[in-house]
Amino acid sequence: MLDQFGRDIRYLRVSVTDRCNLRCRYCMPEEGVEWVPHSAILSYEQIVRLVGAAAQLGVEKVRLTGGEPLVRKGLAELVREIKHIYGIRTVCLTTNGLLLADQLPALLEAGLDGVNLSLDTLDKAQFAALTRRDGLAQAMAGLEAALAAPGLTVKVNCVPSGENDSQLVPLAALARDRDLTVRFIELMPIGLGSSLTRRTEQEVLARLEEAFGPAIPCPQDTLSGPSRNVTFRGFQGKVGFISALSHQFCASCNRVRLTATGFLKTCLQYDQGVDLKPLLDSGADDHALLEAMRQAISHKPAHHHFDGAHEARDEGRNMNQIGG
Ligand code: SAM
Ligand code: SF4
What we know:
The protein is of the alpha/beta class.
């Protein structure tokens, strides 16, 4: 459906849990995390119903995220059910990869179309410092499994945070040696994201050009969303930049988010949207659900203001509660 600014909303990110097996410094505190009680989390049945409603409003792409989506039991079954919803064309997953090698066969069998694997460093000690867990070998096993899966779209997402400057070139080199896209995502000042140092697209690109020579722009394809892709001489794959701050893309934003507790969130930065769980719990019919979703989506904010003054309805959640 079109929002009030004429943007066609086709993409829904669904967070299935706020829990995670890592504690990335820009995302979650080391200790004292207050988990959402299980009773407040949407059941798979409720998620399927809401995705079905979203599909009626024009959503055709779903991404499962978290927290770490693979820590929630039975995720492959959810993939299968969402793939069966009329109108949904692709179901993808964003994961830290630790549990991926084990679960990939079932996910593929259920129809998973793509995996974005978050990886900020290839250095074991730095991985442990950034995520506060020792998980690099498992994440790499997940990446290898994904790359070996025929027909699966695989992307690596890295957030340059000032803590991993030395790893930007080695991470980009994954796209030299393999046919995959490595994307650099600007750190956003949401929750703990404000505590680290953002590196801009320009800064990252300068480092990469120093190592690999001039970047060669790739034609913008509609499937890469806000990612601006380039490649370098001798590369098999691509390098992408998703730069919400230095190159704001709000005017073409086609996404909304569903938190694990059923809040339909219409912009990453604002606590704006509609809480759908009370409607589900009170037995609301499809008409009421659709109407609530339609109202919220239609009022999707025009743009974020990460570089401007704070507003009353700014997001107070950490990224593990939103889903990235
Ligand atoms: N656990 C999964 C993972 O790490 O891929 C999925 C959830 S995680 C919240 C989704 C994405 O959000 C990850 O790629 C992570 O790097 C990114 N992220 C978390 N906090 C961020 C921040 N402050 N700015 C930009 N990206 C962030
Ligand atoms: Fe977990 Fe993903 Fe957040 Fe890291 S970024 S703590 S892996 S939810």
